[in-house]
Design a protein that fits this description.
- Helices cover about 50% and strands about 15% of the residues.
- It is built from eleven helices and nine strands.
- The longest helix has 16 residues.
- The two termini are about 20 Å apart.
- This is Ketohydroxyglutarate aldolase.
């Protein structure tokens, strides 16, 4: 088991930062960490993502793992790894990205939806998968596929909030990926980082009791 997978299974939450402005990224990342978040991804379709990932690796070294999200292909993967990304997350399954990550010693958690995709990702070398879009699929779907697919770590992404997060884990999720429900960009733009920290702490407390 890789160090990143250990962190994922221990801390259970990956914060997804999409569309964050460079000038606000550091303060937002610090606010999330102050609330207990230990894995954070900056999506590659965020302007300046590689620059922010590289800076975070230095600034937050030893405090949180920093990865890249929305890694759609190998070229994006190369850019992210060159910036120092410690893990790669995709909304899609690209076996070339998995192979590249394994070559570089970087964890890859690809996006999947069907049982066929989950097993295909596993056989290609992914140590965990991102089940997406969970907001549409729902927890009953996860419960059903967990019957035959009980040994593959799954990060459920989409639709998670404070009211249903325990349902995700009860359905079989090992971790969750969270964007706007965790990091309110309006609070970030308004400089209300204390609210960001408090929201993060609420989610961290919720998964600590699971």
């Amino acid at each position: 088991m890789s160090t990143m997978l250990e962190l994922l299974l221990e801390h259970k939450i990956v914060a997804i930062l999409r569309g964050i402005e460079d000038s606000q990224a550091d303060a937002a990342g610090q606010a999330l960490m102050d609330g207990g978040i230990r894995l954070m991804e900056i999506t590659m379709n965020t302007p300046g993502a590689a620059v922010m990932i590289e800076r975070w690796r230095s600034r937050f070294d030893g405090q949180a793992a920093v990865g890249a999200g929305t890694v759609l292909d190998v070229e994006m993967a190369k850019t992210a790894v060159a910036a120092g990304a410690q893990f790669l997350i995709s909304p899609n399954l690209d076996e070339e990205v998995i192979a590249y990550g394994n070559e570089q010693g970087v964890s890859v958690w690809p996006g999947v939806m069907t049982p066929t995709e989950i097993v295909k990702a596993w056989k290609a070398g992914a140590e965990a998968v991102k089940l997406f879009p969970m907001g549409t699929l729902g927890t009953k779907y996860l419960t059903e596929i967990r019957g035959p697919l009980d040994s593959i770590p799954i990060m459920a992404t989409g639709g998670v909030d404070l009211h249903n997060i325990k349902d995700y884990f009860a359905a079989g999720a090992n971790a969750v990926g969270m964007g706007g429900k965790l990091l309110n960009l309006e609070w970030v733009r308004e400089g209300k980082f204390d609210l960001v920290t408090e929201r993060a702490r609420q989610f961290v407390d919720a998964v600590s009791k699971i």
